[in-house]
Amino acid sequence: MFGKLRLRTVNFAVSIIIGLSGILLAAVLSFTVLNIGAIETSWIKYQADHSEKARLESALRKAIGYGGMIHHFKNYVLRHQEPLVDNIHSDIGAAMAVVGQYNSLVLSEAEKIALEDVSQALNHYEGALLKSREMIRRAKTPEEIDSEVKVEDTSALRGLNTLRTEVERLAGEEDIARGIKGRLAANLRAALGYGGMIHEFKNLVLRGDLPRVEKIKTHIARIENIFLAYTALGPTIAEEIALDDISSAVNAYKSKLGVAEELILAGATVSEIDISVKVDDAKALRGLSSLDREAALQVDELQREVGSKLSFLTSVVPAINWIFLTIIVLAVLSSVWIFNVYVIRPITSMIGLMGRLADEETELEIPYTGRPNEIGQMASALETFRQTTIARKAAEAEIIELAGTDSLTGLYNRKRFELKLHDSLKMAARTKTCVAVLMIDLDNFKPVNDQNGHAAGDEVLRVVGERLGHICRDTDFVARLGGDEFAIIATAVDAGEHIEIMAHRIIDQLNLPVYYQSLALKIGGSVGISIYPDDSEDAIELVQKSDMALYEAKNGGRNTFRFAENKVAKLNLA
């Protein structure tokens, strides 16, 4: 039967098969090219929103802007609320940590100068904070304080704009970059924070210069444009709520502008104006944090999108190889080898690596980074992402450490002390051991500050912190609770004599002079001691009893120690 077929028919059939195969091959190739283009678009978005400089620039704006250093500092000058001091120190410490990470990157000269300007402004605000505290103690008015501690922000603001310009340049693909929520959230922080609406509004209240009203209106208009751009991207429900909260706060500030103008023209005091125009920022700040979280989710979604499309490509590439095989065997053999060695294996490897990086596994090696092609570029991007993850985890650990550490002495602060005390009591309850809480207060510290200045007082506090650290064992815990008040948690104590020896050593060390410049500064110290579980099994009550014992030591002539209820500790080792 097949022998009767004409050659023309065979040729036609073969031509049809080859033609159909060619059409199918062209369709598959076109589909693959379109998917590669989609991957490229997603990857550009991913890089634009997750670049290290973009992340750090946004973190810096957050630390010093709305809800950060400048916001807390202006409120402190206006309202004299002492708890804001710790917030300002934490904000400045976080900002300095971000600047340190920024300096570890490859930077242009303009960026280096910009970071130096920002650092200088942060140092100026640190000094202004100390001066403000002193003037508040002397009952100075907000107007007088602001006049004395005014910081020139021009260089720092110019530096932040330089950093922002570089981030936008690196984002590239302007049309795509404009549709990235993370960039819009960062722009919103810039318009709200340092050099933006809240900064100008607080300065209007403090200084009463009415030309600032137009600047504030300009910032508000910019903020409203960002809202419109964000809304055009199709916000989630969480983002809509966040935008509504921020918008409500902005509208509140907008409505208060007229009130502020009237009061300034009427000659009202700064305090009267501040009370009348005060706005609750809590929801707006929570909304900004929510936008940051949603932006991070967008980054994760882009990462999954790229991975999914790469996975799809690996599934269709073998089919493409088989199509090539039906067309021409030799071409298919070479194509299979080339695709497997130079495309499939690297892509499959990077898909696996991307999954491991998504789980924040950083102890791995990224291959193919030396290749001068798209695979090499993608591998280099994965390596950058790995380094970014390492740096971010280290930065987060550093920021957590800064948040729990006293910036002057390097000791842990009150918050960390309270957490450690609860942990120590839980461990003691499991191991049937005792814990001693020693509250320490310096004697004659105020004259050191009054007669020799705060720098001498700071040196005394730093040296005292070092000496207490040397006295304690590795299992003990030393903290500075504030001012000239320190505390020690002594764990696994097994005899009252051990605590008495420690108390004697503390007093002996505090009696030693502290040398500052040419001065030998004399202080002293009193110690109050309570013991778990004899005095109490509750952390708060133990601290209270230690404080009471400290008070008794002070009343007993100072430079001594007392146990809770003025008795020698008898430890319960049962």
Write up this protein.
The protein has helices at residues 7-50, 52-64, 69-79, 83-103, 109-137, 142-149, 154-171, 174-177, 181-192, 197-207, 212-232, 237-265, 270-277, 282-327, 329-358, 374-403, 414-431, 445-452, 454-471, 496-511, 539-555, and strands spanning 434-442, 477-482, 485-493, 514-516, 519-521, 525-532, 561-563. It is an alpha+beta fold. It folds into five domains: 1-41; 51-171, Four Helix Bundle (Hemerythrin (Met), subunit A); 174-303, de novo design (two linked rop proteins), CATH 1.20.1440; 321-403, no CATH class; 414-566, Alpha-Beta Plaits. The strands form two sheets. Strands 2-3-1-6-7 form a five-stranded mixed sheet, with helices on both faces. It has a two-stranded antiparallel sheet with strand order 4-5. Strand 2 (477-482) and strand 3 form a beta hairpin. Helix 9 (181-192) packs antiparallel against helix 11 (212-232). The longest helix is centred in the middle third of the chain and has 46 residues, at 282-327. The termini are far apart.
Descriptive terms for the model:
de novo design (two linked rop proteins), alpha+beta, Four Helix Bundle (Hemerythrin (Met), subunit A), disordered C terminus, disordered N terminus
Task: Determine the number of helices (DSSP H or I, runs of at least 4 residues).
Answer: 21
- Describe the main β-sheet briefly: 5 strands, mixed
Distance between the termini: 104 Å
From the coordinates shown, what is the CATH architecture of the largest domain?
Answer: 2-Layer Sandwich
- The CATH class name of the largest domain reads Alpha Beta
Measured as a percent range, the helix fraction is: over 70%
Order of helices and strands: HHHHHHHHHHHHHHHHHEHHEEHEEEHE
How much of the residues is beta strand, in percent? 5-15%
